[in-house]
């Protein structure tokens, strides 16, 4: 991973991140241990990385975000999550996405999980995301055509992991979820806006 060519590094990271047992993925898991704590009340206590050091950059972590609306430290965490083995999140009593409170970094964590599921071609995680947290993200993006389009592309990429029959079932479930009225009171709306602002500042 010492090659100076960014393109070669990106290709290497993409390939190694698809192999959960690779040394790269294990190093990412070690980094996650410093940022994520599993609490007894089913909450994930998340702290952002303090720096993007030379070792992280050699492992493909880009110091500067390539998308708007996310701060540098949140961007580093998202990249670490996306290249870590999904097994990291597995708890002895099972891991059900909907049962965990992700707090203010929910979008960062979910985006990392989505890319990890794609890289590792993990259909169990893709199914959990499609049936659980991604629909909520889409509902939150309904008023912004750019983020909504991005969310739809995220869904399509995950659906590609399944057979056509499975894709149809998952898509119907997703549409039914989106058809439900969006019931956010004023306090919830304000909290969501504050969370988005916090992600962009970190």
Order of helices and strands: HHEEHHHHHHHH
Q: Major sheet, described briefly? A: 2 strands, antiparallel
Q: What share of the residues lie within helices?
A: 55-70%
Oligomer classification: single chain
| Helical segment count | 10
What structural category characterises the helix and strand content?
mainly alpha
Choose one word for the global shape.
globular
Gyration radius, in Å: 17 Å
Output mean pLDDT: 80
Low-confidence stretches: 141-146, 181-189
How far apart are the first and last residues' alpha carbons, in Å? Answer: 27 Å
Structure write-up:
This protein has 202 residues and is mainly α. It has ten helices and two strands. A two-stranded antiparallel sheet has the order 1-2. Helix 2 (23-33) crosses helix 4 (72-83) and helix 5 (106-119) runs antiparallel to helix 6. The two termini are 27 Å apart. 27% of the residues are buried.
Q: Could you give the topology of this structure?
A:
Blueprint: H1 6-16, H2 23-33, E1 36-38, E2 44-46, H3 54-58, H4 72-83, H5 106-119, H6 123-131, H7 133-140, H8 145-159, H9 164-179, H10 186-201
Antiparallel strand pairs: 1-2
Helix pairs in contact: 2-4, 4-5, 5-6
Question: What's this entry about, in short?
Answer:
The chain is mostly helical. Helix content is 58%, strand content 3%. It has one domain (6-201).
Defining traits:
10 helices; two-stranded antiparallel sheet; 58% helix; mainly alpha; globular; 202 residues
């Amino acid at each position: 991973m010492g090659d100076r060519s960014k393109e070669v590094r990106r290709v290497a990271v993409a390939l190694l991140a698809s192999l959960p047992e690779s040394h790269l993925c294990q190093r990412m898991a070690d980094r996650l241990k410093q940022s994520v704590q599993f609490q007894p009340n089913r909450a994930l206590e998340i702290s952002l990385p303090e720096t993007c050091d030379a070792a992280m950059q050699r492992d493909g972590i880009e110091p500067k975000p390539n998308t708007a609306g996310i701060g540098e430290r949140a961007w580093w965490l998202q990249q670490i999550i996306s290249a870590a083995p999904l097994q990291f999140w597995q708890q002895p009593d099972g891991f059900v996405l909907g049962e965990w409170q992700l707090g203010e970094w929910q979008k960062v964590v979910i985006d990392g999980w989505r890319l990890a599921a794609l890289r590792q071609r993990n259909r169990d995680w893709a199914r959990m995301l499609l049936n659980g947290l991604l629909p909520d993200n889409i509902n939150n993006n309904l008023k912004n055509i750019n983020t909504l389009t991005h969310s739809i592309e995220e869904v399509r990429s995950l659906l590609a992991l399944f057979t056509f029959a499975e894709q149809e079932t998952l898509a119907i479930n997703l549409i039914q979820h989106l058809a439900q009225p969006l019931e956010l009171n004023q306090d919830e709306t304000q909290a969501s806006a504050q969370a988005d602002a916090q992600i962009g500042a970190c």
